[in-house]
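step=encode ok
step=design start
structure_in=
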């Protein structure tokens, strides 16, 4: 989720009981966890501090919750608008105003979570969460690459230990021998690891923020992870049972292997890459 307090609709976890999803995003990545749908089609954004507390409670056992709506004091105009009977002669403007008001009155404003010995009440964040379901739609043509989780986590941690604060991007390049994970920092040296993998064509490459990929990996339950990739300019998709993760790419210069492959078909073993943080969200 976003740590930017000016983006309140992203500074929390969105619970969508209608679609059966628990979602968070900071504008660069999105995590969507499938949850049971509710008896009532309600949605709400749980604020950052409350979400962190819930995460701690979940380590102790089951947590249950319920969303509540608090009916505000209506103005005379609003009461008259609700009392208006809709018919064929009702204007479009009145219909729209009435629909907006009804939707606002039905919107949950509080939620209560319960764990053994604890009851937590919190006010939901006001504002609309982005259309995450549109973001979750995957392109038809995706290439899949399967990597062992433990070596990839070790490679990313090594990269983060070397990375300066302003550059946390790594390049992923498919070589004939496996996937090369590389971070190059001018002042801090460089880290390069080769990991066995299956899928994707040699010469393909992309850049990702190391911390984002590492945090997604730590959520997976299996021993392997699958990256679904369209190209180096499109978000990467990661799925694991009921969890869906999307991470926006970083701009990465084409590997030397790819450039030489275009010239003479050769694929040398070493390459030099520069990773740049993308400004697009």
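sequence_out=
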């Amino acid at each position: 989720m976003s740590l930017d307090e000016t983006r309140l609709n992203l500074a929390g976890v969105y619970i969508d009981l209608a679609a059966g999803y628990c979602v968070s995003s900071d504008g660069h990545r999105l995590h969507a966890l499938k949850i049971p749908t509710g008896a009532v089609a309600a949605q709400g954004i749980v604020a950052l501090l409350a979400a962190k507390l819930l995460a701690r409670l979940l380590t102790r056992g089951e947590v249950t919750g319920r969303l509540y709506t608090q009916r505000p004091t209506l103005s005379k105009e609003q009461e008259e608008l609700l009392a208006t009977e809709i018919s064929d002669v009702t204007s479009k403007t009145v219909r729209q105003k009435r629909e907006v008001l009804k939707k606002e009155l039905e919107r949950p404003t509080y939620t209560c979570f319960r764990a053994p010995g604890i009851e937590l009440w919190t006010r939901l964040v006001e504002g609309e969460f982005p259309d995450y379901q549109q973001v979750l739609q995957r392109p038809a043509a995706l290439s899949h690459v399967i990597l062992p989780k433990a070596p990839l986590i070790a490679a990313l941690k090594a990269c983060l230990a070397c990375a300066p604060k302003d550059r946390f991007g790594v390049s992923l390049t498919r070589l004939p021998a496996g996937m090369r994970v590389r971070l190059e920092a001018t002042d801090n040296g460089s880290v390069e690891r080769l990991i066995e993998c299956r899928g994707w064509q040699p010469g393909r490459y992309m850049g990702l923020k190391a911390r984002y990929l590492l945090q997604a990996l730590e959520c997976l339950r299996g021993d392997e992870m699958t990256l679904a990739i369209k190209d180096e300019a499109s978000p990467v998709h990661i799925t694991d049972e009921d969890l869906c993760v999307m991470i926006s790419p970083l701009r990465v210069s084409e590997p030397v292997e790819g450039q030489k492959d275009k010239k003479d078909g050769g694929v040398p073993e070493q390459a030099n890459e520069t990773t740049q943080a993308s400004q697009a969200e």
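step=design ok
step=annotate ok -> The CA atoms of residues 156 and 207 lie 13 Å apart.
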